[in-house]
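1st attempt posting a full record on here, be nice pls
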Amino acid sequence: MVVKCARAKRTKVTLKMAKKALKVTAEGRQRLDLSNLGIAAFPKCLAEMAANVEELDLSRNALCKLPAAVGELTSLRWLDLHSNKLQALPEALGKLVALTHLNVSNNRLRSAGLPAALGLLAGLQSLNLGLNQLDSLPPAMEALTGLQEVGLFDNLFTQLPAFVAAVGRLNAKRNPCTDGRGAETGAGAGTGTERPRIRAKTLHLVPESSLCEDCLHRCTQDRGNTRGDGGRPGASTSEEEEERRATSYSELTTPNSIAAANQDAWRLRGQTPPTGPESH
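the predicted structure (as tokens):
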């Protein structure tokens, strides 16, 4: 079932605007930052910049779908689409064979909306699918043997795909198949083969307005359980509420670690090989 996105105030990105936003990174790559602009439709003008853009940030917008034209951006190495309203990914995404980092966390993706063409992204090293509504991954993704970092947290997995076991950094917390410590409770549980609890180095503070209704409800419940009141309204005094707000950053939640608020830091971190067992 496809749910139509509510109409939003559209921000139209012109070619002039996009060229002005194009910057050169410290590594000499062409990076286009169009994040948090209220964009509701994939900018058509990007096709005219396909040969130039190597890193594209369209996070924190209102995109409901990606057109097949996204496959024309064959120079892309980094694609950040976190915190949109995407319900599916197009087959054309498989044409982005130079892609090393893909972030589509905090969307509305279901397993049926993931194309088998994702298995063609042979160079992919970092993949963030967290905070969606996924319960399985396309079998073709087993071909992604170069993955070093995968985020599957806050989904609906009752059993994790076997191929992710070989990934160095895996965050699959808060799925039906994992317990509160983040360890698997299915096959292998209690045998000493559970994945140990791993604490993130950094967390991305996401404004509540950027979360979909389901994710916001889930995060609100988690905050309630953390403070012991089960998320029931009126369960704490005004003084306790004030203290909670002071210590937990009012209006913010912290589920999305891979897409750091400082996108340059997130990008640069991906260039450095992991130095320890910590995961995001």
